[in-house]
Amino acid sequence: MLHTLHTLAEHHLGRGEYSQAIDSATHLLTLEPWREEAHRQLMMAQLRSGQRSAALSQYKLCRQLLNDELRVEPSPETTALFKRIRDARPRIHLPASTTPFVGRHHELAYLLRLLADPTCHLVTISGTGGSGKTRLALETAARAADVFLHGVFFVPLAAVNSLETIPGTVAEILGAALSGTADPSDQLLTYLQDKELLLVLDNLEHLSGMDAWVSRLIQACPVVRLLVTSRERLNLRGERLLELAGLTVPPTPDEVTGNYSATQLFLNRAQMILPDFVVNEGNQTAVTRICQLVDGLPLAIELAAAWVRQLTCAEIADEIAYNLSFFSDDAKRCARPAPQFAGCI
Q1: Looking at the domain assignment, is residue 249 inside a domain?
Q2: What are the helix and strand counts (H, E) for the chain?
Q3: CB atoms within 10 A of CB 230
Q4: Which of 5, 268, 282, 288 has minimal CB crowding within 10 Å?
Q5: For 127-196, where are the E strands, in sequence order?
Q6: pTM of the model
Q7: Residue 192 sits in the same domain as residue 229
Q8: Could you say which DSSP state residue 299 is in?
Q9: Residues 153 and 232 in one domain
Q10: Whole-number Å distance between alpha carbons of 288 and 304
Q11: In whole angstroms, what is the distance from residue 203 CA to residue 313 CA?
Q12: Residues ≥6 apart with Cβ < 8 Å to 78
C-alpha cells in the first residue's frame, strides 16, 4: 500500500493533478508519518497548487515528526526543497488579457499536463497566423504560474530581427543584468541555470538559427521550461507539439450555436460592440455561415464580429463570401479588400 500510494502521488504530480497528489501523499503519511518522500511529494503538490505557506509548514511538521519519532533531522534533499520554496520569489510577467478566453479547453488541459511533466522541457504551439497561438500560450502560462518557483515570463519576438539580440531581450524581461565583455548568451544561461521558470517565446519562426539557440538553452538550464509559438515546429529532440486548427464550428445552421467555440467567440466579441447582441433564430444561420467561411479562425471571427454595429450578420457573411481573400494569408492582411471591409485591419 505504501508503494502504491507513493506511485499514485508521483503519477498525479506528473499530470498536474495536484489535489489528487495531495490526497495520496496525505493518506501515505497517515500510515507512515516519518516517510520523507511523502512529505516532499506533499510539499511539491501544495506548492504547485498555489499553497506556498502550506508547503513551508509541511516541512516544519516533517522536521518535528522526525525529531519526535527518530531523533533525526530531515535529509539534505528535504531541506534543500524547503530552502528552494522559502527563497523563491515568483514573478509573473505577462501582458494583461483584455478579452475573455473562449474555447480551447482540451488544448489548454493538454498544455497544462505537459508543463507539469518534469521530463518535458519544450512545448511548441504551431499554426497559421490568426489561429490563436499567442492567446492560448498566455492563458496556459497564467494558469500554470503557481507551478514555477521563479515565475512565468512572456517574451515577444515578432519585432526581433537578429538572433544576437535575443539574450538581451530575454534578460531585460527577466530583470537580469548583462554586462562586461562576456558573451551575452553565456551570461543569460548562467543566470537561468538554477531558475525554475517558464519562458513563453512568442513568434520565433522568422529567426534563423533559433532551433540551435533553444537547444543550447534546454541543455544548459534543466529546470527552465519553454512554451513556444511558431508557424513551424522546431524539430528538436524531446519537443512536444500542439498543432492548432480553427475553433469548433457548427456543421449545420440548425445546431445549437452555444455548443461550439467559434460561435461563442463571435457572440462574445459582438457583445463587446453591441451589449444587447444575441444569437437567435433570425441570425443563427448567418453566424454559423460566418464561422464556416473562415474555418473557425479566431482572428477572422473577431474581425467579422467587429462589424455588427454597421452590418447585419447576413451582410457580414455575404461580404466574406464575396471576397474570401480578405481572410486569407493568415487573416493578417487583405490584398484586395471587399467594399465594406476595406481598411478594417
Answers
A1: no
A2: 14, 6
A3: 21
A4: 282
A5: 151-156
A6: 0.79
A7: yes
A8: H
A9: yes
A10: 12
A11: 33
A12: 36, 39, 40, 59, 62
